[in-house]
Amino acid sequence: MDGLLCYCRQGFEPELAAELTDRAAQAGIAGWARTERDSGFVVFACEDADALNRALPFSTLIFARQKLRLIAELRGLDPKDRIAPMLDALPPARGAGQAPLYGELVMEHPDSDAGKPLAGLARSLGNALRPALRKAHLLSSQDSKRLPRLHVCFVDGDHAFLATSAPADSAPWPLGIPRLRMHADAPSRSALKLEEALLVLLDEEERARLLKEGMVAADLGAAPGGWTWVLTRNRLRVTSVDNGPLRQHVLDSGMVQHLRADGFGWQPPHPLDWMVCDMVEQPRRVAERMATWLREGWCRQTIFNLKLPMKKRWQETQLCLDLFAQQAQRPLTIRAKQLYHDREEITVFAMPAKP
């Protein structure tokens, strides 16, 4: 099989399939998406997967948690020996003294109701498969971050995909899910969304450069203060705009000014470093308001959520991002992703594009 294997949030397989299909067509690459509702993954088969892989950088995919280059799909695996068929399906080793093909083995399963019970099988088989791969000179004896990763994804006890990922063009976490812990002081679960957004949508250099002590930010629709709390933990001073109350310990930080006002109508008296927004509103209205902030120069960068409708979510995503880019009336760097801690929404990061 030639193509890509991408993971997604359970229930969003049609959106990911539509995204891959549209993006492949735009690149002039023929192919077709194969998936099942609630499976947690999409296979996109095509004749030139290498070209498709280059045309669809992982950072540009919105509904994909992970992007993998397929090697093989194995069905009817014998529970008595699943390893031999896997070794047979892999490319041959480069030879003694040559670098192995893979730097790390990642054993996975879809993040779905059907996939989660396979975690134990994946873990135990990985313990047996790693030494077999090393003996065959396919896997590095010490995890190498420079070499491609080998992924084994079980979708049933006798059904698995073999695939690879490039460290620079994929998520670094198993299943594409960063493991973040809910802090005891976090005012709400939504804090995890902003923490994940800063981790996924910004690189290490950008986090160091764009999140500095003394910077100023606005949090629109702030109550009860989850996103404000994350910003203060990054040493930013925050104007939190919401008619609702904030948790007292957020106010007690001394870094927060709470304005009881409508986040949609408020504008800052002077330009800010950041504006963040997690308001429950029609996505097009949010996109237009966020564009106004960047067009008028009220903030230098922003992170916001777009709540998606139940139907035509991929189409609405395209429409809103196009509307946002057009109405900002300036070149922007825009990154969007459905994060693990998102639900019926996507998260967007935007800042002026470099000249």
From TrEMBL:
<keyword id="KW-0963">Cytoplasm</keyword>
<dbReference type="InterPro" id="IPR002877">
    <property type="entry name" value="RNA_MeTrfase_FtsJ_dom"/>
</dbReference>
<feature type="domain" description="Ribosomal RNA methyltransferase FtsJ">
    <location>
        <begin position="188"/>
        <end position="280"/>
    </location>
</feature>
<dbReference type="InterPro" id="IPR011224">
    <property type="entry name" value="rRNA_MeTrfase_M"/>
</dbReference>
<protein>
    <recommendedName>
        <fullName>Ribosomal RNA large subunit methyltransferase M</fullName>
        <ecNumber>2.1.1.186</ecNumber>
    </recommendedName>
</protein>
<dbReference type="InterPro" id="IPR040739">
    <property type="entry name" value="RlmM_FDX"/>
</dbReference>
<dbReference type="GO" id="GO:0006364">
    <property type="term" value="P:rRNA processing"/>
</dbReference>
<dbReference type="InterPro" id="IPR029063">
    <property type="entry name" value="SAM-dependent_MTases_sf"/>
</dbReference>
<dbReference type="GO" id="GO:0008757">
    <property type="term" value="F:S-adenosylmethionine-dependent methyltransferase activity"/>
</dbReference>
<comment type="similarity">
    <text>Belongs to the class I-like SAM-binding methyltransferase superfamily. RNA methyltransferase RlmE family. RlmM subfamily.</text>
</comment>
<dbReference type="Pfam" id="PF01728">
    <property type="entry name" value="FtsJ"/>
</dbReference>
<keyword id="KW-0808">Transferase</keyword>
<dbReference type="InterPro" id="IPR048646">
    <property type="entry name" value="RlmM_THUMP-like"/>
</dbReference>
<dbReference type="GO" id="GO:0005737">
    <property type="term" value="C:cytoplasm"/>
</dbReference>
<comment type="subunit">
    <text>Monomer.</text>
</comment>
<comment type="function">
    <text>Catalyzes the 2'-O-methylation at nucleotide C2498 in 23S rRNA.</text>
</comment>
<keyword id="KW-0698">rRNA processing</keyword>
<feature type="binding site">
    <location>
        <position position="262"/>
    </location>
    <ligand>
        <name>S-adenosyl-L-methionine</name>
    </ligand>
</feature>
<feature type="active site" description="Proton acceptor">
    <location>
        <position position="307"/>
    </location>
</feature>
<feature type="binding site">
    <location>
        <begin position="223"/>
        <end position="226"/>
    </location>
    <ligand>
        <name>S-adenosyl-L-methionine</name>
    </ligand>
</feature>
<feature type="binding site">
    <location>
        <position position="242"/>
    </location>
    <ligand>
        <name>S-adenosyl-L-methionine</name>
    </ligand>
</feature>
<feature type="binding site">
    <location>
        <position position="190"/>
    </location>
    <ligand>
        <name>S-adenosyl-L-methionine</name>
    </ligand>
</feature>
<feature type="domain" description="RlmM ferredoxin-like">
    <location>
        <begin position="1"/>
        <end position="68"/>
    </location>
</feature>
<keyword id="KW-0949">S-adenosyl-L-methionine</keyword>
<feature type="binding site">
    <location>
        <position position="278"/>
    </location>
    <ligand>
        <name>S-adenosyl-L-methionine</name>
    </ligand>
</feature>
<dbReference type="GO" id="GO:0032259">
    <property type="term" value="P:methylation"/>
</dbReference>
<dbReference type="Pfam" id="PF18125">
    <property type="entry name" value="RlmM_FDX"/>
</dbReference>
<dbReference type="Pfam" id="PF21239">
    <property type="entry name" value="RLMM_N"/>
</dbReference>
<feature type="domain" description="Ribosomal RNA large subunit methyltransferase M THUMP-like">
    <location>
        <begin position="81"/>
        <end position="165"/>
    </location>
</feature>
<keyword id="KW-0489">Methyltransferase</keyword>
